[in-house]
Design brief:
Largest sheet: 10 strands, antiparallel, barrel
Helix content: under 10%
Structural class: mainly beta
Radius of gyration: 16 Å
Number of strands: 10
Strand content: over 45%
Strand order of the largest sheet: 1-2-3-4-5-6-7-8-9-10
Number of helices: 2
Shape: globular
Order of helices and strands: HEEEEEEEEEEH
Distance between the termini: 36 Å
């Protein structure tokens, strides 16, 4: 499947409740999230620009994805003002036949080994999509860290 075709159906403005887990044992932290999905670079790339809040402080992030025309591998750049601060993460993965885009990257956690990070973008029925992000400890299993199920903002609401 071609990743850009997945995002072509998601172009527009979206709203969700962002759910953040600092660890699997901690309670979930929720905030409103707004997202805009658009195509860029002469429709060679897709971008999800999103906002959310941590302890009442506004945060924002971007996921920019492209797909190699030969191998169909999906590459992404991800940054988030809270998670990544002054850096960005390069991620690599693919898209499955159902349209789920999955990419993985790593981040430094000195003095320990690098940790993994996985981002799943899943189109859902009825004009919605889910973004899930998993923290992967060295040698461990993925742990849900962030999840938001976005629903389309009505055209009238988007003009406000």
């Amino acid at each position: 499947m071609i990743a850009i075709d997945v995002f072509r159906g998601l172009i527009g403005e979206w709203r969700a409740t962002n759910r953040l887990w600092l660890s699997p044992k901690d309670p979930v932290r929720e905030s409103e999230s707004l997202a805009v999905v658009r195509l860029a670079g002469r429709e060679q790339f897709a971008e999800i620009a999103y906002t959310w809040a941590f302890d009442g402080k506004p945060q924002e992030g971007r996921i920019i994805l492209g797909q190699d025309s030969g191998s169909h591998a999906v590459n992404a750049v991800w940054f988030d003002s809270w998670h990544m601060r002054n850096d960005f993460m390069m991620c690599h993965g693919g898209v499955d036949p159902t349209g789920v885009v999955a990419v993985k990257g790593t981040y430094a956690a000195p003095p320990d080994p690098d940790w993994g990070w996985e981002i799943l973008i899943e189109p859902e029925p009825r004009d919605a999509f889910r973004v899930s992000m998993y923290n992967i400890p060295p040698g461990g299993e993925p742990e849900l860290a962030v999840q938001a199920v976005y629903t389309r903002v009505a055209a009238r609401e988007a003009r406000r």
